[in-house]
Amino acid sequence: MTKWVYGFGGGAAEGRALDIEILGGKGANLAEMCTLGLPVPPGLTIVAQACGEFLKAGRCLNDALKAEVMAGIARIEALTERRFGSNDRPLLLSIRSGARASMPGMMDTVLNLGLNDETVMGLAQDAGDERFAWDSYRRFIQMYGDVVMGLGHDLFEEILEDEKARFGREQEPEMTAAEWRSVVARYKDVIEEETGAPFPQAPDIQLWGAIGAVFSSWLNPRAATYRMLHTISEAWGTAVNVQAMVFGNLGNSSATGVAFTRNPSTGENRLFGEFLVNAQGEDVVAGIRTPQNITEAQRIASGSEKPSLEKLMPEAFAELSAICHRLEAHYRDMQDIEFTIERGRLWMLQTRTGKRTAKAALKIAVDMAQERLISRDDAVARIDPASLDQVLHTTIDPQARRTVIGSGLPASPGAATGEIVFSSEDAVRAQKEGRDVILVRVETSPEDIHGMSAAVGILTTRGGMTSHAAVVARGMGLPCVTGAGNLRVDLRNGLLIGGGLSLKAGEIITIDGSSGQAIKGAVPMLKPELSGDFAQIMEWADAARRMRVRTNADTPADARTARAFGAEGIGLCRTEHMFFEGERINVMREMILASDEAGRRAALGKLLPMQRSDFVELFSIMHGLPVTIRLLDPPLHEFLPKAEDEIAEVAAAMGLSPRELSERIDALHEFNPMLGHRGCRLAISYPEICEMQARAIFEAAVEAARQTGAAVVPEIMVPLVGLKAELDYVKACIDAVAREIIGAAGLSIDYLVGTMIELPRAALRAHVIAESADFFSFGTNDLTQTTFGISRDDAAQFLETYLRKGIIEKDPFVQIDYDGVGELIQIAAERGRRTKNALKLGICGEHGGDPTSIRFCEERGLDYVSCSPFRVPIARLAAAQAAITVPKVA
Ligand code: PEP
Ligand code: MG
Known about the structure:
Elements: E1 5-9, E2 12-13, H1 20-35, E3 43-46, H2 49-57, H3 63-80, E4 83-84, E5 90-91, E6 93-99, E7 109-113, H4 119-127, H5 130-147, H6 153-166, H7 177-195, H8 203-216, H9 221-229, E8 238-244, E9 255-260, E10 272-277, H10 281-286, E11 292-293, H11 296-302, H12 309-312, H13 314-331, E12 335-342, E13 345-353, H14 358-370, H15 376-382, H16 388-392, E14 395-396, E15 404-407, E16 409-412, E17 415-421, H17 424-432, E18 437-441, H18 449-454, E19 457-460, H19 468-476, E20 480-482, E21 488-490, E22 495-498, E23 501-504, E24 508-512, E25 517-520, E26 525-526, H20 532-544, E27 548-552, H21 556-564, E28 570-574, H22 584-593, H23 597-622, E29 627-630, H24 644-654, H25 658-668, H26 680-685, H27 687-708, E30 714-718, H28 724-745, E31 752-757, H29 760-764, H30 766-769, E32 775-778, H31 780-788, H32 795-804, H33 821-835, E33 840-843, H34 851-859, E34 864-867, H35 872-885
Parallel strand pairs: 4-5, 17-18, 18-19, 19-20, 27-28, 27-34, 28-29, 29-30, 30-31, 31-32, 32-33, 33-34
Antiparallel strand pairs: 1-2, 1-3, 3-8, 6-7, 6-8, 9-10, 9-12, 10-11, 12-13, 14-26, 15-25, 16-20, 17-24, 21-22, 22-23, 24-25
Function: Catalyzes the reversible phosphorylation of pyruvate and phosphate.
GO molecular function, one term: pyruvate, phosphate dikinase activity
Cofactor: Mg(2+)
């Protein structure tokens, strides 16, 4: 039989904190506080399961539930020595929501329930305060009329303003009993006018009306939006808490307030909060009066003249402090509490785990571990890895006002302000003149690399989370917003159009790569602050972690940043990114456009020393750590000029006519280059490219080993393999070069040859491919693209619709698709390791920096994850959390 109602009060409770799914957060914690012997007004919780039933039927049909509520009220009556609906010491109730996850302010509350034309007299007599009684009654009618009868707050506010004016009152505290009485009369009249029935006088009708309204508020649009944003299931429903009222508005020895057991923005271990004298909870929320500080220290720091609770009510303060200590020790986490002081007596109305900034979260976790309140693993598990973006990047001041002109995907975190430029050339020019610019493009291509590195931020109107702009910006640690489909780039007129505005090149915008917003003008920013607490958590995380964390780095700068963030090697060096800088692009074009092998070899001969010196530098920076270098992967057309003037320029440099060059470019055109002549297919068509790259790698390994004295073990990675024969062909070429160079050097250099698994066929045939591979690295960007058949560059527009319509829960290019792509990875890992037990497994797609995907990698027993440099700390923390929480396989 379902138990519908759980009572609490008088030092005992039927529920406990662990019953949060049944009782909701508020109910479970009220019960827990009662059991701890803390002063909690007695009450009862109607279980969340009743919410679903109520919403289905539109009313409460359940007799058992009704009987349990009435029995619960009888218990409250006994504990308070008051009677619900009585004229003599009437019991008044508060009716509050309380879902499993905290949803602050999203649902409805009714206070002072049980008042009517008669009980108001009883309350006046009991409190010895007629004014208080009539004020409470008018508050009740106002809340009930709004929340239960749906008449709207404004209707009552208008009357209140009118009455205040009539009586010549500026502030509500100036109103007398008689004046409140007059307000009550007008409220009742308006209710009768609007609904055709008088305001309900019977307390049990009021009670069921309010309970129903709280249940119904689970479906209000505010709550629905909040649930969507915080992935809270509609099926959970809300519990309802019915509790004896205590009054913070019973004169100047009464007060109400909220407190955090530690400072939620800095993490400082000191009580922090605010209160109002002679007020009820909603007055704090309404913000009509300025609240006072709880502690003297806080009052002095804020420069407030109004006395702190510590000074004003020292006894209640001392008790509150002691209770806060107790609650922290009990819950082993920072608490956010609500309290009321009724004529000097303290009552606890709520406790819950307090929300905090990332900086505070780090400090609190470290302090609590050092206070031995929690273990080091607990401290590591407490930090949301994604929140580290707040400490690693410049962010927009949360207090700042923003004029949002458009929004897209939060592709690379951090915020930046600069002048709009529409081309990479303009970006470079502006940077030379010392100006900060935001590069605004429809999308970027590898040709934009110089413009991107000259900009302080990147905004594109097309492209998803693994589009070129997103991947490169993350690598560079630049804020980036991609796929901002509600903005338009009008290149012809040099305008960025959105949010009803047209902005010209040179105008200032701000982009927020953490939220995906594009904002007009400059906005106040907060600088990143890497505190000692951050380093401490990272140290503990590293101790708990099983998987290694490498980085995706193509340049020495990336590699150095990643090392500083604790990367343990390079998991992916995309060699193509080395071919776009300065002179190199021209040599690359020369190679691609050469009409025969001899021409290609000539150009490759010029590229060789450049590649070699890049690799020497990467090997030296990584000083003996593993470095995975991927052979050339992208479709060749990405390197070719597109605009007419550029074609003319390249043609002149190559001694061709623009027409001849255009013809060659046309011949290389592919309809779907992502599935075309790329990956290992290039090395098979043009083995001389593979030869040059292998030569550069081995010569660099020899040189770096001699320079640094640290052994270099290059890991050479072959992209887009689907057939074992493809890998064999390319591997034979690599091995031949290795034999020649290592032999000549007279050094012993180990190396690995492995493959990316980024095609479904490769995953399915992993047992065969593993015969020729020393390692697999899951290229989950392409594997997601090829498994879903969704182009990663064109996905943003319709995936947004998919998310909105609930077709998918998460963008699969951001968080690994456990069921589909995940199964392919599992198959490949199992089959590969069946062939080769020691096969090294890693991931180097963008998922390697996503906490949920990292957990997946831990579950599947991968050896390492690799991600962009700025995500390395996030990955270290997420890998540690996964190691702590994922059950170990024997
Ligand atoms: C991948 O496909 O996941 C990958 C890492 O390669 P790229 O993003 O360069 O295609
Ligand atoms: Mg790939």
